[in-house]
Amino acid sequence: MKKVTQILKNNSQLIIEDWERQVFELVKSSTSANRIALRDHVPNILNDIIGIMVEYDIINWNLEDPKIALIESNSIDHGRHRASSGSFSADEILHEYIIFHNVILRVLNINGVKDHNTYNILKCCVDKSMLKSMEAYTKSIEEMQSKLVATLAHDIRNPLSAARLGIEMLNTEDIDQDRSMRVKKMTMNSVNKALEMLEGLLDSITVKAGEGMMLTYAETDLYSDIETIYQEVSEIYSEEIILECLDKDLHGIYDAVAVRRMLENLITNAIKYGDKNTPITMKIEKDGDDYLLLSVHNHGNPIPQEKQKAIFDFLQYGKQTKKPKLKSWGIGLTLVKMVAEAHGGAVELTSEKNKGTEFKIRISSNANKPGKTRTKLNLV
Hints:
Elements: H1 2-10, H2 12-26, H3 35-39, H4 42-55, H5 72-84, H6 90-110, H7 116-170, H8 177-205, E1 211-221, H9 222-236, E2 241-244, E3 251-254, H10 256-273, E4 280-287, E5 291-298, H11 330-342, E6 346-352, E7 356-364, E8 371-376
Parallel strand pairs: 2-4
Antiparallel strand pairs: 1-3, 1-8, 4-5, 5-7, 6-7
Helix pairs in contact: 1-2, 1-4, 2-6, 4-7, 5-7, 6-7, 7-8, 9-10, 10-11
């Protein structure tokens, strides 16, 4: 077996390059990946196979044989990477493994390897790696689907709560006609928004690899949406909320529903963790001709530095708050990051004891074309 492992070591670069060439030619989704992303953990998987062959001359056909457990970790990472890549399908992962196996077989044949045990070990290793990659890929897709559905279901509560409050207000006897009209408008807007989110919920049930929720971009003026958000949250919550938006012309190509949800999640987050005796400030301003800056600021206990990055991660959840009407913020902040990046922007967090906590989002007003598209979704 020493001769075989030496052959594989000497030809490892050739194996990876030949595999890469064939995958680019035969696997459609590979064309959207750069070389580093395509190779991913494949060189490590090859090294694992060599390591197993160094240790063992005979392996049972049973894939649960502990002798081949070394290959599991990199195989799992490979499956998760393919799920988050935004393109690879399950059959394409199987195809790239078949190519990988055949390339190694070809090298062994060229170098005169005829030992039956060598081919048995190789097949068991590749089969085990493929199995673990597919398990990780499938599990990752299920996690994406579950979290996205939970995100939408969580956010639907906000417009429904606003609509219920509006109905309760309309049932009071001391409401004047002007306020009655405003409340009716707010209630109708909230119901319409809830219906739009339900459509998004149905879209998320069909989430694909590496893809998040469906966004619908259109030419719109965000000012009216931002003003509606402000009116709704001011009615629902007892905390003081300040809106600073000097420019009333906020035209661009946006998914207005997604931007609204992004801001609502940030305001809800500020209410959960902010000092209830100090105001929450929502600030909107233009950043040149092509970008908007949207920020939400609150005072209160800062977010620890070591947790500031993790709270945006897709598979992270925040601790539950004691306020019964407000749930975990983990899902909401994932959505904030997703929507910001889908609009050609980014989210920035600063949180200090004496300055408070501020989430600042920079989005482009023309990064997208009108129409529907799915967001990209990173697992971590």
